[in-house]
Amino acid sequence: MRRWLRALAWLGAGLLAFAAAVLVAWFGGLGPWGPFPGGILWGEVAREPVADWSFADRVAELQVQTRLGPLPWSVTTWALTHAGRLYLPSRNCFEKRWVKNLLEHPDVRVRVEGRLHELRAVREEDPALGEALLRQMLVKYLGIEAEDPRSLAAEPGERETRAYGCVFRLEPRS
């Protein structure tokens, strides 16, 4: 009987230690790592708003923390700039968790080159800008130059309609 109680105590202690490690990793700043999401983003917070985001073109990916409330969610994602503004593209606006979070709660934290920026995400609706950003994305990430980037995408069928992407413009919080 004592052996069972002792084994049960060790098992309980092990589970508590594992749960504590997960909580420390999630809330202690173990942000996203490659394709795996993370929790809170830590770092030096930029005090002044950025006037020209073109410096972000030299980084392939940045980190975005959505849902700034009790359960933060951070991801590593692509970033594009156009006319000095920063944009986050997503290939799917309906199923990705971080995009759903942005649609519900637009306040985000973005980490670029180790600095945090507190911003607000606004869904971009301009089709001409979307084409310009698609052209830039093809060059930046795939090395493809296309005059008409829409020709590279298949026409949406009934099943594929939900798979189309969207773009968010990041602006300073006011």
Report the top-level CATH class.
Answer: Mainly Beta
Quaternary assembly: single chain
Can you tell me the CATH superfamily?
A: Electron Transport, Fmn-binding Protein, Chain A
Q: Please work out how many helical segments DSSP would assign.
A: 3
* CATH topology (fold) name: Pnp Oxidase, Chain A
Structure description:
The protein is 29% helix and 26% strand. The protein contains three helices and eight strands; from the N terminus they run αβββββαββαβ. It has one domain: Roll (Pnp Oxidase, Chain A). The relative contact order is 0.15. The protein has helices spanning 2-27, 97-104, 127-142; strands at residues 44-45, 61-66, 73-78, 80-82, 85-90, 107-112, 115-124, 166-172. It has 174 residues and is α+β, with helices and mostly antiparallel strands. Strands 1, 2, 3, 4, 5, 6, 7 and 8 form an eight-stranded mixed sheet that branches. The termini are far apart.
What are the main properties of this structure?
alpha+beta; 174 residues; elongated; single chain; 3 helices; Pnp Oxidase, Chain A
Helix/strand layout:
Elements: H1 2-27, E1 44-45, E2 61-66, E3 73-78, E4 80-82, E5 85-90, H2 97-104, E6 107-112, E7 115-124, H3 127-142, E8 166-172
Parallel strand pairs: 1-7
Antiparallel strand pairs: 2-3, 2-6, 4-5, 5-8, 6-7, 7-8
Short structural description:
The protein has 174 residues and is α+β, with helices and mostly antiparallel strands.
